[in-house]
Amino acid sequence: MVEDFRHVTLDIPQLRAPDDILIRNRLLSLDPYMRWRMNDSKSYAKPVGIGEVMVGATVGEVVCSNDPLFAPGDVVLAGGGWQDYAIVKPDGVRKIDPQLTSLSAYLGVLGSPGFTAYAGLMKIGAPQPGETVVVGAATGPVGSLVIQLAKMAGCRAVAIAGGVEKCRLAVERFGADAAVDHRDPDLANKLAAACPNGIDVYFENIGGRVLDAVIPLLNSFARIPVCGLISQYNGLEQRDDAISLAQLMQDALVKRLLVRGFIVTDYNAYRDEFFASVAPKVTSGAIVSLEDIVDGLANAPSAFIGLLNGKNIGKLIIRVD
Amino acid sequence: MVEDFRHVTLDIPQLRAPDDILIRNRLLSLDPYMRWRMNDSKSYAKPVGIGEVMVGATVGEVVCSNDPLFAPGDVVLAGGGWQDYAIVKPDGVRKIDPQLTSLSAYLGVLGSPGFTAYAGLMKIGAPQPGETVVVGAATGPVGSLVIQLAKMAGCRAVAIAGGVEKCRLAVERFGADAAVDHRDPDLANKLAAACPNGIDVYFENIGGRVLDAVIPLLNSFARIPVCGLISQYNGLEQRDDAISLAQLMQDALVKRLLVRGFIVTDYNAYRDEFFASVAPKVTSGAIVSLEDIVDGLANAPSAFIGLLNGKNIGKLIIRVD
Question: A254-274: b or e for each residue (b if 16 or more CB lie within 10 Å)?
Answer without folding.
Answer: bbbbbbbbbbbeebeebbeeb
